UniProtKB/TrEMBL annotation:
Record organism: Methanococcus aeolicus (strain ATCC BAA-1280 / DSM 17508 / OCM 812 / Nankai-3)
PANTHER family in alphabetical order: PHOSPHATE-SPECIFIC TRANSPORT SYSTEM ACCESSORY PROTEIN PHOU
Lineage: Archaea, Methanobacteriati, Methanobacteriota, Methanomada group, Methanococci
Residue span, PhoU domain: 84-166
Pfam families: HTH_24, PhoU
UniProt-recorded name of the protein: Phosphate uptake regulator, PhoU
Domain of life: Archaea
SUPFAM superfamilies from the UniProt entry: PhoU-like, Winged helix' DNA-binding domain
Signal sequence bounds: none
């Protein structure tokens, strides 16, 4: 834990990051210390062009100092919000599968009703990206953070779509029970791997193997359904199940997009 002048310097840096003060007097007033003391503490950082006037902080240069660990890291809040979004997606994905398995219409309706929560969290991330030190990120990096949030939200949309299909009569025939369970297991694991990359920068390329397995399982299901033939009584079932499979496929595609956007974000963060 920092003490004395180092603790004060960290407090000064936080003030600069959060408020972009015009003068040293503004900083001194907020911390109830003298302007002269502010000038003395920040002079080495000004000389290194880490702190610039009007008072802003070069986060890339600051990150190379030991003090950086004691300054609120700008990505923490974003990562936390990503985690909340992920928990929402996984919770509703599980509920949707159970609803489909036992034809629970009311549970499916509940999933649809909760879709607004993900939208709200995505908007909160958008606001957070524009605040504090994250606004110093290069535009390309800010866009990657937004892309991650948007793709998590789209995963939620596909879950909501499936829930709506359930309310409209989507059911699983017994011969397809195991195949559909496998679909949900695959996309659940893909999503977890994608979010592990987002939260922990963990590289697990099994996600691409799962993508191949997902498409293979979808093809297997389509073959089984097509074996029913082209009688009119099966056409609507074939179409509805096709829509369900398309949402499953798109969910998997979004997992890949999340994984790759976070990979690119962390890679470029290191290069800056």
């Amino acid at each position: 834990m920092l003490r004395g002048k180092d603790a004060t310097l960290v407090a000064i840096i936080k003030i600069i990051i959060e408020t972009e003060p015009e003068t040293q007097d503004d900083i001194a007033e907020k911390l109830n210390i003298s302007r002269r003391y502010v000038a003395k503490l920040i002079k080495p950082l000004v000389d290194e062009d880490i702190i610039k006037h009007p008072y802003i902080v070069d986060m890339d240069k600051l990150s190379k100092l030991d003090l950086y660990d004691d300054v609120d890291k700008p990505l923490n809040n974003i990562i936390e919000l990503y985690g909340k979004m992920a928990n929402n997606v996984l919770y509703n994905l599980n509920k949707t599968y159970k609803s489909l398995k036992i034809n629970d219409i009311e549970t499916a309706k509940g999933v649809i009703a909760q879709d607004y929560r993900l939208n709200r969290m995505e908007e909160e991330i958008g606001v957070s990206i524009k605040m504090n030190s994250l606004r110093y990120l290069p535009m390309e990096q800010s866009m990657r953070l937004s892309v991650i949030a948007a793709n998590i939200e789209r995963c939620g949309d596909y879950i909501s779509n499936i829930a709506e299909e359930i309310t409209n009569g989507l059911k699983i025939d017994e011969p397809l029970y195991d195949d559909v369970e496998l679909l949900f297991n695959i996309i659940t694991e893909m999503f977890e791997l994608a979010m592990d990359r987002v939260r922990n920068n963990t590289s697990n390329y099994k996600i691409y193997e799962l993508e191949g397995e997902l498409h293979k399982t979808i093809d297997t299901i389509l073959e089984k359904i097509s074996e029913k033939g082209c009688e009119s009584k099966y056409i609507s079932y074939y179409i509805q199940f096709g829509m369900f499979l398309k949402d499953i496929e798109r969910f998997g595609d979004r997992c890949i997009k999340i994984f790759e956007a976070s990979r690119d974000f962390y890679h470029n963060l290191k290069q800056q």
